[in-house]
Amino acid sequence: MQQPAPATPEQVTALVRAADPRWRAVRCWPLAGGVSARVTGIEVEEPGGHTRRLVLHQYGAANLRFDPQAAITEYRLLCLLSARGLPVPRPWLADETGSMGPGPCLLQDLIDGERVDNAPDLGDFLGQLAATLAALHGAGIARAEVPFLADVRGDVPRRLETGSSQPDRFAGASAVRAALQASWPPAPVNRPTVLHGDYWPGNVLWRDGRLVGVIDWEDAAFGDPLADLSVTRLEIAWAYGPDAMADLTARYVALRTGTDVSTMPLWDLHAALRASTFDMETWGLPAPRLAAAQAAFAQFADNALAGLTRPTAP
């Protein structure tokens, strides 16, 4: 997918000054972003010579096709989350119309942290991932505060309708689609919450062994917290195996007492459907790692399908 054109120095200056007229843009550099988004780091000088680092997120066609107001949606959500003390970037400015830049964009703080691909202490890593996800789901943000977020239950019909034109990347994807067509939607067994929508290690930042930031909120939705947990379960199964997935799930359920996991198989199938078109062959993984990821997907999907006809345990 083609990324938006990079912001010019003049556009960066205009955006920075619109966020705070006292700021002066000093330098810019590209950051890793999504498939169709463009993400740029910006260093600004504040009064007194202090510096601040910001992120300019320019939305790509895929995000805007799903939500033409993606910039203001993410801005409003981050305002709510940061006000509740969650580790998210502070938003400064949403340019929904692209009047100051080359398209819709969001200016926010840059969190000083790094992604962790190989956790040195897996138990602690999983514990912090689970605790942060539980804190997000326990933030108490009501539906009336986020009317701009989509209902996550609508994601499956949308993907089933549009996914027929995309090739399946994993064996068993057709069985996943058939089961969802027959059984969707899940019963509403848990209190709905704000959902990140793509909570996996690549969207989490760490510093000195502590989780300090959750980024990339453009897939946020509202609904059963199991929708988020299932996405994370699949990602952890891919990266660290089924035992780590089970450990993460148990830690989350222990923190969110009263969570009803009876519909987990359907939410796991939702996560599998979401991942079924991921083109992992283009990710540059070594052949053994790619084969392991494909096997993990198949096992995850098979367990979810089997779980539709038996009681579910975390």
Q: How are the strands of the biggest sheet laid out side by side?
A: 1-2-3-5-4
Treating each run of at least 4 consecutive H or I residues as one helix, how many helices? Answer: 10
The total tally of domains equals: 2
Q: Based on DSSP secondary structure assignment, what is the total number of beta strands?
A: 9
Strand content: 15-25%
What about the largest sheet?
Answer: 5 strands, antiparallel
Mean pLDDT, to the nearest integer, reads: 91
Please identify the top-level CATH class of the largest domain. Alpha Beta
Return the CATH architecture of the largest domain.
Answer: Alpha-Beta Complex
Envelope shape: globular
Task: Give the CA-CA distance, first to last residue.
Answer: 37 Å
Low-confidence stretches: none
Estimated helix fraction: 40-55%
Can you tell me the CATH superfamily of the largest domain?
Aminoglycoside phosphotransferase (APH), C-terminal lobe
Question: What series of H and E elements makes up the topology?
Answer: HEEEHHEEHHHEEEEHHHH
Q: From the helix content, strand content and strand pairing, which structural class follows?
A: alpha+beta
Find the CATH topology of the largest domain: Aminoglycoside 3'-phosphotransferase, Chain: A, domain 2
Radius of gyration from the CA trace? 20 Å
